[in-house]
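seq:
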Amino acid sequence: MKLNNIVTKLWVIMTILVLVVIGIAGAAQTSFMEGLYYDQQARQLKALGNKVADIAKAEQDTATLDSKVALIADLYDLRKF
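struct:
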């Protein structure tokens, strides 16, 4: 088949257009999902921080407070940070 054939040129152009559209859609979806993920993580960490703050306000004994915070850190696997 000749490269000058109009059908071949149309197939090449359509293939390039499809790849460009898929690339743009993929980039947009990745950006959206990344933003959604980070927003969700920020909300969860804020809620956890508020819970720990409430526990800290209510607890008078520092040793008990330390053990409760350590338990929360273990439950949420926060010791690695």
